Amino acid sequence: MDTTTSTESTESRGRAEPARLRAVLVLAGSTGGIGAHVRSLAAGLVGRGVAVTVCGPAATEEHFDFSATGARFRPVEIAAGPRPSDRAAARELRAACTHAHVVHAHGLRAGLVAGNALGRHRVRRTPLVLTLHNAVLVGGAKGALTRVLEGRAVRAADVVLGASADLVDRARGLGARDARLGPVSAPALAPAGRDRAAVRAEFGAADRPLLLAVGRLAPQKAYPVLLDAARRWTEDRPTPLLVIAGDGPLRESLQERIDAESLPVRLLGHRADVADLLGAADVAVLSSRWEARALVAQEALRTGVPLVATAVGGVPELVGDAAVLVPHDDADALADAVTALLADPARRSELAAAGRVQAGTWPDARETIAQVLSIYEELGPV
Description:
Helix 8 (about 195-200) packs across helix 11, helix 9 runs parallel beside helix 10 (about 250-260) and helix 9 (about 225-235) crosses helix 14. The strands form 2 sheets. This protein has a 7-stranded parallel β-sheet, sandwiched between helices. Mean pLDDT is about 90; it is low at about 1-15. The chain folds into 2 domains: about 20-185 and about 365-380, 3-Layer(aba) Sandwich (Rossmann fold); about 195-360, Glycogen Phosphorylase B (Rossmann fold). Helix content is about 45%, strand content about 15%. The protein starts with a helix and ends with a helix. The protein is built from 16 helices and 13 strands. With about 375 residues, the chain is an alpha/beta fold.
């Protein structure tokens, strides 16, 4: 018998293993950027040896498959707006966070539920990180209430990360103890599965310009303004076709208007082939009232598709000089910018090249993971 090997084995068994960092990532319902970011974050953290649990509505697991990253998924039904069910959600989240070293909530709703779950009930103080992805845009009484809740959420967090500089400033103004810029990297697009001609043929756009918008059919995206611009494009020859990939609560009203005004617009619903759509598009269009680091803007610049976007939120700092920026809620400016680009192939080529260069300046997923992990370690959860 090799006594040396036996002794080393005994010592190895008796030696304490380093504690494994346990992180709980929390999100409310999402089918877009927040869910994609949480999935990317979960995958990166698991790859760095972190034990990750993702808590959110069951539908988010169906959409993003967090479990495939190596994370554990635990359903916690956090609704899009305040609900009596928030108390039950907080109880479920509290149980999920019992052994967590750090909890990281994404979005205002997740932050509120996480703050309630970790509040007066926590036996030991579990650090809470909150990433703000969106601005509060509603007005009136609902807007006032939302801003009160927003202040409560940021003050409950140990660190608030804003996806854009204006969100960081807002968090500080609302009393955040520690607010920092935390850019959200866009996950890499899967390679296109079809060539440009095949995709354009699907829409009957072989001999006409093809414009692309991507995003949830919700008020923030200002699609009525985009339809106003599309009405202007009916005067152009050949008339551009605008396709909008995404679904949401405004679909029925938008479709009614498209039909009533015979607009050159097609609503595609949810699409899993955004890479194909970008490869076929002549110009990408973003008409939003506000964005932080719009996913479609990042995808367009990375793939060399000229972009016309509204100069709101974090968009100017994101795209620099690599896109055409117009005022928000100005359909004429939006329409004119697109028309000018379609008439100028050289300018489109310049923007395509500039977009790829600009994309190279953004933090990638690895850098995003490193920043988040350093904050977790800074908070001293282990």
